[in-house]
From TrEMBL:
Residues 256-361 form the Biotin and thiamin synthesis-associated domain. Pfam families: BATS (PF06968), Radical_SAM (PF04055). It comes from the Bacteria. InterPro entries: Aldolase_TIM (IPR013785), BATS_dom (IPR010722), rSAM (IPR007197), rSAM_sf (IPR058240), ThiH (IPR012726), ThiH/NoCL/HydG-like (IPR034428). The lineage of its organism: Bacteria, Pseudomonadati, Pseudomonadota, Gammaproteobacteria, Alteromonadales. Keywords: 4Fe-4S, Iron, Iron-sulfur, Lyase, Metal-binding, S-adenosyl-L-methionine. Its cofactor is [4Fe-4S] cluster. PANTHER family: 2-IMINOACETATE SYNTHASE (PTHR43583:SF1). GO terms for molecular function: 2-iminoacetate synthase activity; 4 iron, 4 sulfur cluster binding; iron ion binding. Its EC number is 4.1.99.19. This is 2-iminoacetate synthase ThiH.
Length: 373
């Protein structure tokens, strides 16, 4: 596994030491580098760079408008199931939570599709939980073709699968797969993942290689910010993105910035805090290092925060999200949700807020005719 092999050679402690030894002059120079590299990224996410946040924001904004124009892609998650065969101490789906579980029937999938279409979306993210035996390929073979009739671009958050299964998903109509490493710190990873296949750190780390080999159009990566030191985890994410772009250059790379949020049954385990200002610093650093990459921000963040940071570097956002299966067509449903959301505005209001800032909301990532052989 080429990308995973590169990542395994990185020494977490050495990176953590480097980021805290950056000087203010080195940070300033990194922001203005004509061809920034990973050393510049380390400088930009260092404590020494914090006084230069406004300068970073201006450069990130200029790069975003230069590469993407004024467009911001809109998508919405559809939770197909909240079944999970893993024990993860930070997630509401964790298997020990004795709360109502639900997997959508085909009829319910159709109802959800109609409800989402009425919101204006053509770009859909399918979220499945991680239960391979009950919500696996057999279920996907039934549901994905039905959804493909309505949505030309389908993304998926699903448990790590084999290369062959990713090829099957692509043939069924999946255009993008997002699998987050949660944290690149192996020992911390073990502390949060107590049972199930998700305990296999290496299998998860090798996921983007299998997706690249399968020829997936877009590969989504990221760390769950808060499980470990955010600066070091983000440097690993930046390395991950750089290796992917060089190795599987036919696939687009998407980077997300999920912060830990309260959830049903959360354990309150020892975690790290990432402030709003530090998250802005991180987003700007990624935009400067990766001007071509899609940067995505979800409704985990507040409306106020999203409205202020999207113009700086974000090119893809979710809106109007329901994080429980069946939540769009039946607003009275009480099934377990994965985490709390902060931006609960209707999708139309989010789009209107973008327009007010001179941005153009784009409701689809792909035109149907381009997907035909």
């Amino acid at each position: 596994m080429i990308v995973a092999t590169h990542l395994r050679t990185q020494n977490w402690d050495d990176i953590a030491m480097r980021v805290h030894s950056v000087t203010p002059s080195r940070a300033y120079a990194a922001i203005h580098a004509s061809h920034p590299d990973i050393d510049d990224f380390i400088a930009m996410v260092s404590p020494a760079a914090e006084p230069y946040l406004e300068i970073m924001a201006q450069r990130a904004k200029q790069l975003s408008r230069s590469r993407f124009g004024n467009t911001v892609s809109m998508f919405v998650p559809l939770y197909l199931s909240n079944l999970c065969a893993n024990e993860c101490t930070y997630c509401g789906f964790t298997m020990s939570n004795r709360i109502k579980r639900k997997t959508l029937t085909l009829e319910e999938v159709d109802q959800e599709a109609q409800a989402i279409k009425s919101m204006g979306f053509s770009n859909l993210l399918l979220v499945t939980g991680e239960h391979e035996t009950k919500v696996g390929m057999a279920y996907f073979k039934e549901t994905i073709p039905r959804l493909k009739r309505h949505f030309p671009y389908l993304m998926m958050e699903v448990q790590p699968l084999s290369t062959e299964h990713y090829r099957e998903l692509k043939q069924l109509g999946i255009n993008a797969v997002l699998v987050y490493q949660e944290t690149y710190h192996a020992r911390r990873y073990a502390q949060f993942h107590l049972r199930g296949n998700k305990q296999d750190f290496d299998w998860r780390l090798e996921t983007s290689d299998r997706l690249g080999i399968a020829g997936m159009d877009k590969i989504g990566i990221g760390a769950l910010l808060g499980l470990a030191d955010w600066r070091t985890d983000s440097i690993m994410t930046a390395l991950h993105a750089s290796y992917l772009q060089k190795t599987y250059w036919r696939s687009r790379v998407s980077i997300a910035f999920p912060r830990l949020r309260p959830c049903a049954g959360g354990t309150g385990a020892d975690t790290f805090t990432l402030t709003d200002r530090q998250l802005v610093q991180l987003i700007c650093a990624h935009r400067i290092l990766h001007p071509q990459a899609e940067l995505s921000l979800s409704t985990r963040e507040s409306a106020h925060f999203r409205d202020n940071v999207i113009p700086l570097g974000i090119t893809s956002i979710s809106a109007g999200s329901q994080t429980q299966p069946g939540g769009y067509s039946d607003t009275s449903t009480t099934a377990l949700s994965q985490f709390d959301t902060e931006d609960n505005r209707p999708a139309a209001d989010v789009a209107a807020a973008l327009v007010k800032q001179g941005l153009e909301p784009v409701w689809t990532d792909w035109l149907a005719g381009y997907g035909k052989a």
